[in-house]
Amino acid sequence: MELHVYGGAREVGRNCFMLHEKGKYIMLDCGVKLGEQTEYPEIPDRMGKHIRDIVVTHAHLDHTGYTPYLIKEGLTPHIHGTKPTKDLTSVLLADYARLGKIAKRRGHTFSQGDVEKVLDSFREREFRQPFRSGHGFNVELFNAGHILGSAMVMVEGEKKVLYTGDISVRGTKLLDGCERDLKCDTLIMESTYGNEELPSVKETMKKLTHEIKETLRAGGHILIPSFAVGRGQEILLLLEAYMRSGAIPETKIYVEGMIGTGMKITRQNLGYAKEEIKNRILMSDDDPFKSPYFRTPKRKDKDDVFEEPSIIVSTSGMLTGGPALGYLARMAPDPKNKIIFMGYQAEGTRGRKILEGAKEVEVDGEMVKMKMKIEEIRISGHSGKSELIQFVKGLKGLKKVVLIHGEDEGIKSLQDSLGKSYEVIVPSLGEEIRL
Ligand SMILES: [Zn+2]
Ligand SMILES: [Zn+2]
Questions:
Q1: Residue 49: CB partners within 8 Å, gap ≥ 6?
Q2: 188 pLDDT exceeds 80?
Q3: Of the bound ligands, which one is closest to the alpha carbon of residue 8?
Q4: How much is the average pLDDT of 64-71?
Q5: Which domains does the chain possess?
Q6: Confidence (pLDDT) at 224
Q7: How far is the CA of 77 from the centre of ligand 1 (A)?
């Protein structure tokens, strides 16, 4: 069995892999890497005819964003994923098609029509319901705990290969942690936080409530840039819970971009959420998704958002585009305001530059002075180093670990720790590895 690496090697973004043995092929994820310049997976032309099945682990564009391009080229693969993955993908791809500006510069575009075709190609799959791919691989999905409907993929051919996609071992406010103790020969694992530990829920709560109170008291506004799907919902649930319990003062929380749509889809796919959330909604009238704290700006100039101290949760998560940029430009020059990064900031993004202390950043061609306070409080849908190691050690029969979806430091650190007990492979872009 071979693994072909088209993206996601020593980088976070454009995950795309092909498993291959004796005339059989199956693609795992098919994403793009969004940054100042979008990067695409490098799929050799000769592979086109072999792309019959693509399993997408979850809706994030670094796992799904290239599917419309393949469809546009005339390929007709079946795309396998869970129902929430399909629903959330439809939202994210539609948004991405609209944002086509970035892509157009490189001659790459696709239309809403191509997005519709992607959705038509979808085959909805449930966790723990094995199915056979067109070429005859046995495939099974397991909960990954990362975002709603996110899956790990087990592919069984000559070898049993588990591909994690993005995983959260501990789970989140909304989701149970990923499945553990599975049996496989080879593991292909994300390494996003391979060299870091994630803070405990308690530490996060303490820091977040402190930072929010400080700014609200000073009469400032708080901007939380967020992914449309996943962290956006987690952050809103967290803020709602804090406000309800009195841990932070009651304030309007403005929800911008696609985060609200993400909330609706979550509400429609409650079967994939934690028991606790389901019960709260089903057993009482207490629905955190319909909290009165959540608002959308009423005025086009958004002046209403700034009438009194407020919290703004807006896309995009790494400040690569979206309404968060308008807020950033408006809020950055005032030291009373604060930006709180709660998600991963990839290299080369505006978010990363600000986090690394840039004195000014460019927004829509204008330089904006960064006078607002900058904080980073991670709530992650990923896993910290020791959680990843714990996950690996729980797998039965495991011999090889392929580390992907991480930057050099994260991968190196995991490689050092896992290398004692397993054969660890760190692939490069374009490599074909024997498993
Ligand atoms: Zn993800
Ligand atoms: Zn990812």
A1: none
A2: yes
A3: 2
A4: 96
A5: 2-196+381-434 (3.60.15.10), 201-376 (3.40.50.10890)
A6: 97
A7: 22
